[in-house]
């Protein structure tokens, strides 16, 4: 049985079992389907063709007995000389003193390891006695944690394959495999670990990619169907006159794209099914405006609405703008983590008593202590941080509101529709009229006097500027240090004539708010900041955005940052300070200077970065796959989507025995399971 514990597999004792658990491997099935991320082929190349500092395999004859040095506790270094071609190559092995006994002068050995071209030296990670036969199998390389070695993992996976692979059953219908010429599951499994040839491997991968995508799409589309069927009866029959009246008070005419999206949202609201919709649009395209209209529609039915955003700064901003927008029409309240004590109690009471109509806050809004009276509409800004679990929390409170997700990560439309299988998607792909495109410049290197003078000029013209600090990868601490240094540097140039502010993630919330408030009120003219200003912040008077180390940001993030300016009627500028080393980096800077259109940008980024590295994938909330790559294997994903649609539509998943195996897997999925049980 494949769902037995890995401890059943030959060679897995208690200790190893625990280590394998760390890798997420619990059952025999987990082990069998732990696929390599790459493969080693022991191809012997002439020494002159080896690449310095890269992995290489060499074959040679030992010209001396290995010598060994011990140092520290349990540490050793084994050194030997190999005759390879006409060269004497030094081979070094660490902490493998046992190998000394196995190796003797005159032996032929094959060693794999890191190659040092200058010293003609190899640091051996793997070796075997004897020649490297070219028919040696392609060897799998797995993702590891320190506690498990590659050899161990290979051994136990091989053991599992030998003992249990026969139990692996086909899950795809025969017709499907015929249509797409896919190998059967058992065969493909063997080929994934020990491919007989690159071609066989390709087909095996193709099979598992399709299988993975099909399961994903079936799950998404089934969930969508279950959602719909489970929520009959929550039609919101909003008051059209009041809504029209409200829209007319807005100081602008909606764009065509806004009108289209709004119509889609209102249709969902009126329908007896619960809305589960993603509203996509570039920064400043007017998503919030559209969402707010939806919110008001719900208010006219006597319900409450909530807006959830990722940060307190944003919550604060939205609170103020909604309050202004709904003045005299609805009561708006702000609830974040920093609202405490008596005030908090009072707000919570006013929510449950329905004295307030609209609640703005961070995602903490759905915490246990918050009880809504009659929640009809929820807007979630930045979709990725709000998952199935939160939705479940709402439902557990007996709430089944229409939910609108907003995201400013422009994902190419085709990709979005395919990737968010359980959501409907609306796209605002048009900017309000009268926006001046932001002029973007790319300057090589550091912040110069020229840039400082440029900022000064903008400030003297009554405007404001952001300066985004260099980004140090994975080091919050250093990022902040950078921000502080840069702040002092800039302040020393500008002050006292120009006030400079500093913003970073370690400031307390009230400090952050204070800084943002000062900036919004133009008491600060220049704001030095880490990327915390990335999302949503709206100060229309800011017209200059300077980004240090721009090459370290993804296109999407640069675009988000740039979106902080160009929000008013004045001409805005974005200055990218960057010294990209590679062509891709240069290309990215060029693209930034050439387009202001987030969708265009995302298409370009897609092409540029290629598979496995699509910008902001984690940020965007796009699903992650084990074998398949959504971008690279886009066609397979689309095929799977269509196939899944047909299967779900015809109810084949439930009725047709050929889909039984797929059905069984999907029914075990916790999300589907939860949905069925609910
Ligand atoms: P997003 O949420 O997509 O970033 P917002 O809804 O916050 O965009 O809109 C950005 C700014 O543009 C706001 O100041 C808003 O009042 C304004 N705005 C929204 N829609 C329009 C429109 N159709 N015409 C002009 N200005 C608009
Ligand atoms: Mg509805």
From TrEMBL:
SMART domains attached here?
DEXDc, HELICc
Q: Which organism is it from?
A: Halobacillus amylolyticus
Residues forming the Helicase C-terminal domain are 450-607
Taxon lineage: Bacteria, Bacillati, Bacillota, Bacilli, Bacillales
Highest taxon of the lineage:
Bacteria
Function recorded in the entry: Plays a critical role in recombination and DNA repair. Helps process Holliday junction intermediates to mature products by catalyzing branch migration. Has replication fork regression activity, unwinds stalled or blocked replication forks to make a HJ that can be resolved. Has a DNA unwinding activity characteristic of a DNA helicase with 3'-5' polarity.
Q: Which residues form the Helicase ATP-binding domain?
A: 268-428
InterPro entries in the cross-refs: ATP-dep_DNA_helicase_RecG (IPR004609), DEAD/DEAH_box_helicase_dom (IPR011545), Helicase_ATP-bd (IPR014001), Helicase_C-like (IPR001650), NA-bd_OB-fold (IPR012340), P-loop_NTPase (IPR027417), RecG/Mfd (IPR047112), RecG_dom3_C (IPR045562)
Q: What is its EC number?
A: 5.6.2.4
Which named protein is this? ATP-dependent DNA helicase RecG
Molecular functions per Gene Ontology = DNA helicase activity; hydrolase activity
Reactions performed catalytically: ATP + H2O = ADP + phosphate + H(+); Couples ATP hydrolysis with the unwinding of duplex DNA by translocating in the 3'-5' direction
Q: What class of enzyme is it?
A: isomerase
Similarity comment: family membership: Belongs to the helicase family. RecG subfamily.
């Amino acid at each position: 049985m494949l769902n037995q514990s890995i401890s059943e597999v030959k060679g897995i004792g208690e200790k190893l079992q625990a280590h394998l658990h760390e890798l997420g491997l619990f059952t025999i099935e987990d082990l069998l389907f732990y696929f390599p991320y790459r493969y080693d082929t022991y191809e012997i190349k002439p020494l002159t063709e080896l690449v310095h500092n890269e992995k290489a395999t060499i074959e040679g004859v030992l010209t001396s007995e290995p010598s060994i040095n011990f140092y520290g506790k349990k540490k050793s270094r084994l050194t030997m000389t190999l005759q390879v071609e006409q060269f004497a190559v030094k081979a070094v092995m660490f902490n493998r003193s046992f190998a000394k006994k196995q190796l003797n002068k005159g032996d032929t050995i094959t060693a794999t390891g890191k190659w040092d071209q200058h010293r003609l030296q190899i640091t051996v990670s793997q070796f075997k006695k004897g020649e490297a036969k070219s028919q040696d199998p392609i060897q799998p390389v797995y993702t590891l944690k320190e506690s498990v070695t590659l050899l161990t993992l290979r051994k136990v996976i091989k053991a599992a394959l030998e003992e249990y692979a026969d139990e692996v059953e086909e899950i795809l219908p025969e017709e499907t495999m015929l249509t797409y010429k896919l190998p059967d599951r058992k065969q493909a499994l063997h080929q994934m670990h020990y491919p007989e040839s690159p071609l066989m491997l390709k087909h095996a991968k193709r099979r598992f990619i399709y299988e993975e995508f099909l399961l994903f799409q079936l799950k998404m589309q089934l969930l969508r169907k279950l959602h719909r069927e489970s929520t009959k009866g929550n039609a919101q029959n909003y008051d059209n006159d009041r809504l029209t009246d409200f829209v007319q008070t807005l100081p602008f005419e909606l764009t065509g794209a806004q009108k289209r999206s709004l119509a889609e949202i209102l249709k969902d609201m009126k329908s007896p099914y619960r809305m589960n919709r993603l509203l996509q649009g570039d920064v400043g395209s007017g998503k919030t405006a559209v969402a707010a209209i939806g919110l008001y529609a719900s208010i006219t039915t006597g319900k409450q609405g909530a807006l959830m955003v990722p940060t307190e700064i944003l919550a604060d901003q939205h609170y103020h703008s909604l309050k202004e927008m709904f003045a005299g029409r609805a009561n708006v309240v702000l609830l974040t983590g920093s609202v405490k004590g008596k005030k908090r109690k009072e707000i919570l009471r006013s929510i449950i008593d329905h004295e307030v109509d609209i609640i703005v806050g961070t995602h903490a809004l759905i915490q246990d202590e918050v009880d809504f009276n009659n929640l009809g509409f929820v807007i979630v800004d930045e979709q990725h941080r709000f998952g199935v679990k939160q939705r479940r929390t709402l439902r557990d409170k007996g709430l089944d509101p229409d939910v609108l997700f907003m995201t400013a990560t422009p994902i190419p439309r085709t990709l979005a529709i395919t990737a968010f299988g359980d959501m409907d998607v609306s796209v605002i792909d048009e900017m309000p009229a009268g926006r001046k495109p932001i002029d973007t410049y790319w300057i090589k290197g550091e912040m110069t006097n020229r840039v400082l003078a440029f900022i000064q000029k903008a400030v003297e013209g009554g405007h404001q500027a952001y300066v985004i600090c260099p980004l140090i990868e994975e080091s919050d601490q250093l990022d902040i240090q950078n921000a502080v240094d840069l702040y002092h540097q800039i302040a020393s140039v500008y002050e006292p004539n120009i006030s400079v502010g500093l913003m970073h993630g370690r400031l307390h919330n009230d400090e952050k708010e204070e800084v943002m408030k000062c900036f919004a009120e133009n008491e600060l003219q220049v704001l030095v900041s880490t990327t915390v200003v990335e999302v949503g912040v709206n100060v229309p008077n800011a017209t200059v955005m300077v980004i240090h180390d721009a090459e370290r940001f993804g296109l999407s993030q640069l675009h988000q940052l740039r979106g902080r300016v160009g929000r008013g009627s004045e001409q805005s500028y974005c200055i990218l300070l960057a010294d990209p080393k590679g062509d891709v980096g240069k290309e990215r800077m060029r693209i930034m200077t050439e387009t202001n259109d987030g969708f265009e940008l995302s298409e370009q980024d897609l092409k540029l970065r290629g598979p496995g590295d699509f910008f902001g994938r984690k940020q965007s909330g796009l699903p992650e796959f084990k074998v398949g790559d959504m971008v690279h294997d886009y066609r397979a994903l689309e095929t799977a989507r269509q196939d899944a649609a047909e299967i779900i539509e015809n109810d084949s998943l439930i009725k047709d025995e050929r889909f039984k195996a797929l059905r069984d897997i999907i029914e075990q999925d916790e999300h589907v399971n939860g949905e069925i049980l609910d």
